[in-house]
Amino acid sequence: MVAVTTPRELDLLAQKAMLQGRACLINFFQDDCYACRSLHTKLKKLAHDHPDVLFLKVNGSIEAMRPVFEKHGITKVPYFFCLRHGRILSRFSASLNPEKLAMLRKELVAALHATAEEEAEEQRPQHAEHAPAALELEPAVVAA
């Protein structure tokens, strides 16, 4: 799991995952969130079990990262984005609730198995949104 401290670093890491064909799970959290801290152990295990997925942690308690939360309308934490091939496949909140944990695992597996062709044909506009320059937080540094 990689702790991200600037919007630029978030963009660069998401772009790198895209170029490598890796899925990326972004965990949005805050220091004062009990559910976030409680979920951290589960996320570490998921990261260990899925080394082919890039796990990023974005801390909303860091002043530099607050614009990222605002830009994406994140008002509750923990919150997650699953990305693959430069697309945000899903956005959701999760917790230690068994149903929410099951959804987190399901979305992670779906991102792992997604292919560029499937995403192009996907008819889930409410869940998938195009992010050509990773999360469009900074100008693209790496050409896709």
Brief descriptors of the model:
144 residues, alpha/beta, Glutaredoxin, 6-stranded mixed β-sheet, 5 helices, 22% strand, globular
Task: Provide a compact summary of the structure.
This is Thioredoxin domain-containing protein. This protein is α/β, with parallel strands linked by helices.
Per-chain topology:
Elements (H helix, E strand, L loop, with lengths): L1 E3 L2 H14 L2 E7 L4 H16 L3 E7 L6 H6 L7 E6 L2 E7 L4 H16 L2 H6 L7 E2 L14
Helical fraction equals: 40-55%
Q: CATH superfamily assignment?
A: Glutaredoxin
How does CATH name the architecture?
3-Layer(aba) Sandwich
Radius of gyration: 14 Å
Instruction: List the quaternary state of the chains.
Output: single chain
Question: Any low-confidence stretches, pLDDT <50, length ≥5?
Answer: 122-134, 137-144
Mean pLDDT equals 80
- Could you spell the SSE succession in H and E letters? EHEHEHEEHHE
Number of domains: 1
Please give the number of β-strands: 6
Number of helices: 5
Family: Belongs to the thioredoxin family.
Domain Thioredoxin: 1-114
Organism: Edaphochlamys debaryana
Protein name: Thioredoxin domain-containing protein
Account of the protein in words:
- One of its GO terms (biological process) is cell redox homeostasis.
- It comes from Edaphochlamys debaryana.
- Belongs to the thioredoxin family.
- This is Thioredoxin domain-containing protein.
- The chain is an alpha/beta fold.
- It has one domain: Glutaredoxin (3-Layer(aba) Sandwich).
- Helices cover 40% and strands 22% of the residues.
- It is built from five helices and six strands.
- A six-stranded mixed β-sheet has the order 1-3-2-4-5-6, with helices on both faces.
- The C terminus is likely disordered.
